[in-house]
Amino acid sequence: MYTAPINEMQFLLNEVLLKDNEISEIVPTLLEAANKLAREELEPINNNGDEHGTSINQDGNVKAPLGFKEAYQKYIDGYWGSLQFDSKYGGQELPFVVAISTQEMWHAANMSWGLCPLLTQGAIEAIEYGANEELKSAYLPNLISGKWTGTMNLTEPDAGSDLGALKTKALPKNDHYLIKGQKIFVTWGEHDMTENIVHLVLARLPNAPEGVKGISLFLVPKILIDSDGNLTEKNDCRAISVEKKIGIHGSPTCVISYGEKSGAIGYLIGKENKGLECMFEMMNNARLAVGLQGVSIADYSYQKALSYCNDRVQGIAPGYNETGPIIRHPDVKRMIRLMQVLTDGARSLTYYACAELDPKEKQLSNENNEIHKRRVALLTPLVKAWCTEVAQEVVSLCIQCHGGAGFIEETGAGQLFRDARILPIYEGTNGIQSMDLVFRKLLGDDGLAIKELTKEMLMIDEEATTTFLSAKQTQSFIQAVDELMIISGSMLNNRKNKSLLAGIAFDFLMMTSIIAANWRLIESATYASKDSIKSKYSQEFLGDRLSSAGKFIDNVLPRYQMHRSVILNQLDN
User: Fold this and answer.
1) Is 540 an active-site residue?
2) 267 in Cβ contact with 218 (< 8 Å)
3) How many domains does the chain have?
4) Rounded to whole angstroms, how far apart are CA atoms 518 and 241?
5) Which domain does 480 fall in, by range?
6) Are 199 and 237 contacting, i.e. CB atoms less than 8 angstroms apart?
7) Measured between alpha carbons, how far is 269 from 219 in angstroms, rounded to an integer?
8) Which listed site, 40, 115, 184, 287, has its alpha carbon 20 to 30 Å from 426?
9) H helices of 403-470, where?
10) Does residue 103 sit in the same domain as residue 193?
11) Is 205 strand, coil or helix?
12) Closest C-alpha among 36, 23, 14, 126 to residue 80
């Protein structure tokens, strides 16, 4: 059974990221309530969702797996969808990182179900960013409450990552537009959990410029509403099929047709031909959330493997005289240790990036706000790509820890493996994330954001680190940061060679992510070493926080050297 790492979450929120924030007092209660929803409502229906999936009838109506609708109603009743949003539309205005901590539990307990509020969250962000007040007032309250859900409609049969190739049309008519086209890979694009679904659809206006410069964003409701916000008639859009997938069977991935009759009524969000600007608000939010999914499924995999390794009796481990649990075996210990530190590093990096989205909490100057904007922009591809790569490794190790039993579906390890595989693919493949990091973030500001980041990394409290790191470990980390700075400079010097940079982008992302995650673990351990903390947490817990940074240096940090070597080999040729 999944057990949320509430102590780890609370420590990161209250002691490391939010420090003395007035909401710190409610964090423990909030986390316990979210854990209750995860354990009692979401996890029990996860396996059924995997085994039976969703169904679609001839009218295009999709039925969610058994129990999903009831669990979603519990989500609505708890006002969980409103945590981070504007109170003007029914939100509670809590920091985004607090909302993220609750979502970690839901994705761990049932990732298929968790995708529904994830997409709604992104839709809210896009509408808040780009829609006019009339649209905001009409749609945000019901989306924030969870009464309605939202989707993202980007991909078409001939337009995947190349959005410039999309063909869906938007024809102006009076105060709205008529949308005609087909979208694929629409997560939770149709279902029976709510009375309405709000689709955000990318489309082209007549005479729009070619490529991505000619894309606009439209709000297309499944059910139209009148001037008072009441539901009226069904819009001209429908699901025509549900994909059969390797994993996340409980989440309907739909093909949706718009405008088979007269045209689906849609409303412009943002300016004409500027749709990607608004959609990126949704996509960037979703990319952080997908990184969080990597953390979630890694943590559950670690828990499942640890429990099995403590229970499974097999063989006589070196140093023992009798058979015992396989956790005694050195190689099993190695795998468990690696799973733990990778998950810790991924969570620390993800939570930090999400906290950077809340500069308002810090009451900063405009200049410092710009630093935080650059920081979260730089970290977003790291979180999305590295944390989802971590998930692949950890779920694979989970199966390995189970041995032959891990290859049998009834253990549940197989579902984790299958569900996790989508993470490096959707919301922009990890290859695309690496290109974003190099060309948009590194070259886009002439290395300013990464210079700011590495400078801060080198400001670790070396006096404090002596309580939990050896001199050799500290030096290993400092050397890694120094070499990241050198590599960044070399890539900037080769900015004209686009092909070269594209070929080493993934290694650069991995190298940067590993070092950044280690930095966050060192920072967390620094707070765990403070005397003021000792009365709040158990000695065992604080000991784990202190040791995690060193374990990462010993077991994971050396990986950056491999990526560095690959980059240097390419730069030298």
Assistant:
1) no
2) yes
3) 3
4) 44
5) 429-573
6) yes
7) 7
8) 40
9) 413-420, 430-435, 448-457, 462-465
10) no
11) coil
12) 36
d(CA 228, CA 208): 33
Helical axes 448-457 vs 366-402, angle rounded to 10°: 70
Q: Which residues pair with 558 in a beta bridge?
A: none
Given a cut of 90, whether residue 138 has pLDDT beyond it is yes
Using the 8-state DSSP alphabet, how is residue 208 labeled?
A: P
Which of the 8 DSSP states describes residue 337? H
Inter-residue contact 344 to 548 (CB < 8 Å): yes
The tokens describing 233, both together, are: 């008639």
Q: Which amino acid is at 191?
A: H
Give me the pLDDT at residue 364, please. 54
The CA–CA distances, whole Å, from 233 to 60, 195, 221, 236, 379 equal 16, 12, 10, 9, 43
**pLDDT score of 331:** 97
DSSP per-residue letters across 235-284:
-SEEEEEE---SS-TTS-EEEEEE-SSS-EEEEEESSTT-HHHHHHHHHH
Q: Are 66 and 48 in contact (CB under 8 A)?
A: yes
End-to-end CA distance of the chain: 52
Q: Which runs of consecutive H residues, i.e. helices, occur in 53-132?
A: 68-77, 96-109, 111-130
225 phi, psi to nearest 5 deg: -125, 155
3-state secondary structure 528-539: HCCHHHCCCCCH
Provide the phi-psi class of 248: left if phi over 0, else alpha when psi is between -120 and 50, else beta.
Answer: left
My answer on whether 70 and 157 are in the same domain is: no
Q: What is the greatest pairwise CA distance in the chain? A: 83
Are 184 and 268 within one domain? yes
- Assess contact for 125 and 91: CB atoms under 8 A: no
Residues 64 and 174 in one domain: no
Residue 21 has pLDDT above 80, yes or no: no
Please, what is the average pLDDT of the chain? 94
Choice among 15, 281, 427, 523 that is catalytic:
427
Predicted TM-score (pTM) of the model is 0.95
* Structure confidence by residue, pLDDT tens digits, 407-416: 999 999 999 9
The C-alpha atoms of residue 353 and residue 442 are separated, in whole angstroms, by: 17
